[in-house]
Amino acid sequence: MEKRLNGKVALVTGSGGLIGPAVVRRLAAEGAAVAVTDLSLESAEKLAAGITAAGGRAFAAALDVTNPEGIASVFEAAERALGPLDILVNNAGLLRKQSAPLQQTPVETMKAIIDVNLIGTMLCCREAVGGMIARGYGKIINLASIAGVSGLPGWADYAASKGGVITFSQTLAMEAGKHGVTVNCVSPGMICGPQVQENQGTWLGRSGVPEDIASMIAYLAAPEGDYITGCNYLVDGGRVVGPRNAAWIQ
Ligand SMILES: NC(=O)c1ccc[n+]([C@@H]2O[C@H](COP(=O)([O-])OP(=O)(O)OC[C@H]3O[C@@H](n4cnc5c(N)ncnc54)[C@H](O)[C@@H]3O)[C@@H](O)[C@H]2O)c1
Fold this sequence. Notes:
The chain is α/β, with parallel strands linked by helices. The chain has a single domain, classed as NAD(P)-binding Rossmann-like Domain (Rossmann fold). The protein is built from 7 helices and 7 strands, in the order βαβαβαβαβααβαβ. Strands 3-2-1-4-5-6-7 form a 7-stranded parallel β-sheet, with helices on both faces. Helix 2 (about 40-55) links the parallel strand 2 (about 35-40) and strand 3 (about 60). Helix 1 (about 20-30) crosses helix 7, helix 3 (about 70-80) packs parallel to helix 4 and helix 4 (about 105-135) packs parallel to helix 6. The radius of gyration is 18 Å and the shape is globular. About 45% of the residues are buried. Nicotinamide-adenine-dinucleotide binds next to helix 4.
């Protein structure tokens, strides 16, 4: 694989889920040193060990993105271990397993989802962007969702949190652009598992895989993405383009 990120240092949040490991492995495969973080230290350590075993540089830490003090100390430790951050991927996210109409959604659940998805993203950006601005270089990539563009009945809190991530990212792109820092969102559609699955809800007739998201993130982090900021890339097999399966559509 082409090493477009040689010499760069990246930090990824929420690395332990479905998409995170593919993102971490892709950034490392492209030459970046990666700070692997998640609520679960065990999963972060396992991923980081895989990178170092393959000859790369990695650092692992437990990180709860809702905790500002924890963020400060983990980011500092990551920079001490690997060097100043060039790339931040805010991947940590929370989604309720069961859908529920708004009137049946517990207030505490709504707050927890906004707290992780929106405030957590803002806190990590806040921690990283000062140093990036001072050094005149940085790439921030925030995981939003197609739900943040089109809404998602039964998951209003999640959709609102991701819509917030998109407009927050646009705003930070405006604030930080003149200092050489780009801020973009990647909005996955249905990423259903490690394997491709047939899915007639997308125009490509399949669901996405974590690598589909990782390759867009790597593109934005690489020099190819240098002139892109304030954008939200939908990686969704065309799901949001328009309706499918209507009787009158060929
Ligand atoms: N999978 C999809 O189809 C899909 C679609 C749209 C958007 N997304 C977004 O992409 C990102 C990754 O999705 P995924 O499918 O891998 O999710 P996932 O649920 O599999 O993994 C999420 C990860 O975030 C971590 N996390 C949760 N709360 C955290 C906290 N407070 N602090 C730090 N880490 C925390 C979890 O430990 C987990 O490892 C999320 O932001 C998600 O909202 C995913």
